[in-house]
Amino acid sequence: MTIQQITQNISTYNTSLIEITGGEPLDQPEAIPLVKFLCDQGYDVLVETSGAIDITPLDSKAHIILDLKCPGSHMTSRMEWNNLMHLKPKDQVKFVILNRFDYEWALSIISKYALNDLCEILFAPVFGELDPKVLCEWVLGDSLQVRVQLQLHKFIWDSNAHGV
Fold first, then answer.
1. Which of 55, 60, 82, 87 would bridge 91 by S-S if both were Cys, CB 3.0 to 4.6 A apart?
2. How many alpha carbons lie under 13 Å from residue 103 in its C-beta half-sphere?
3. Is residue 160 very low, low, confident or very high in pLDDT (cuts 50, 70, 90)?
């Protein structure tokens, strides 16, 4: 789809909030111009990125949701760590946590990069692997300043569904 087709499709909805996500949106050549166009049109644009690609070309009006890959994902080595230096207070860092090791790793990264001073922190359990109650107990037990979230789309639609 072209930017024009996408914006025509968006205009059929009564919304001012657009989230660009799915796989790694910054791998798409038109993602950067699309985000800029949407921001210039007055939309509140969220970009959920894996953190493996430089976020600096994104329009500064966009909200970044940066997924920091925990060791359980086996993708930590792909992280573009310099992205952390470009986060703004309106942005978010998300950790998808598989187990206690990932949780402890996330705590060390939050401390090392002073992430609580940069932006909001999100913790999400790996769907079907870590009981959300267990993650909540860890967070409450450690009095963390994080928000626990669930991958809601996996509860509403089939967990393997695409395009939702």
1. 87
2. 21
3. confident
